Amino acid sequence: xxxxxxxGGGPSGSAAAVYAARKGIRTGIATERMGGQVNDTxxxxxxxxxxxxxxxxxxxxxxxxxxxxxxxxxxxxxAAQIIPPATPGELVEVRxxxxxxLKSATxxxxxxxxxxxxxxxxxxxxxxxxxxYCPHCDGPLYKGKRVAVIxxxxxxxxxxxxxxxxxxxxxxxxxxxxxxxxxxxxxKLESLPNVTIHTNAQTTEITGDGSKVNGIAFxxxxxxxDRHVTLAGVFVQIGLVPNTEFLKGSxxxxxxxxxxxxxxxxxxxxxxxxxxxxxxxxxxQIVIAAGEGAKASLAAFDYLIRMPVA
Length: 310
Ligand code: FAD
Fold this sequence. Notes:
Helix content: 10-25%
Radius of gyration: 21 Å
Cofactor: FAD
Binding site for NAD(+): 146-160
Number of helices: 6
Shape: elongated
Low-confidence stretches: none
Keywords: Disulfide bond, FAD, Flavoprotein, NAD, NADP, Oxidoreductase, Redox-active center
Largest sheet: 7 strands, mixed
Oligomer: single chain
Bound molecules: flavin-adenine dinucleotide
Protein name: Alkyl hydroperoxide reductase subunit F
Mean pLDDT: 96
Domain FAD/NAD(P)-binding: 2-293
């Protein structure tokens, strides 16, 4: 068995693995793929001390560092279930969809999250070429340009307010008849001179010139009119879904499906920790996921050294 078994090999899992392995304890990482969401990122400009890098480079560097410390890396592994210890202090078991199973004194869950897609023509085609999901990451790339935000919930309205301070103009599209965000955010948004809000707007297509986005098409659901706005970028903000379906019934989750963690990254199960985008920790960013992974790993180590001697 492992001392620390990490499930999920993105930035949070990789940081957890490096911290655990450097303690000289048996460390394994089981993941669908190494690098996580970072693989799908074009340019990363906000990882502190790294002026600019790209997703594949960053991901390869993560994996290189994890392997450097002799961590057992198991890819193409999808966890299906976690079996808590029968009594505190016993091993935790993780079962995988391929029928395999691993046991460990502690487990760190770092399975990340995925952005919900709008599923209209152009979205997949222009991902990283005008279609974006993270205003903190990609907002500055659209300085002086016109963009749209799809989604009028808290994340969409926050994104629109954020972007309005950077870009020339923001068009916000909300499917339903009113914005769902908190009133204070809606008032802030409505006070901004360079924002246009369309409610009852059903996005029908993200248009492009073959290499990058050049506009967005939507249907006004009241009048039935088809409209098109010319712009350079579209931020899709209709939800971030944590990859935690397999934990339902075993680990305590928030109503959004996020793993509930305390300040040490502890879950409700003794010996099971969590970090990164899959958890209730706010602001889903690489630097935050990495920091939280390191923290959960140190918390797991703390737990291990307090285990009674057999
Ligand atoms: P993830 O990166 O999501 O990694 C989780 C890993 O777990 C994945 O490899 C996944 O396959 C695996 N996994 C999931 N379920 C299971 C399971 N059941 N069993 C085993 N393995 C599983 N952040 C920035 O700071 N700067 C940026 O510029 C930036 N740009 C972004 C651009 C895009 C297009 C996207 C999608 C995100 C971007 N982000 C950016 C956000 C950043 O990528 C995430 O915050 C970060 O990757 C989260 O790390 P994580 O380790 O928590 O999860």
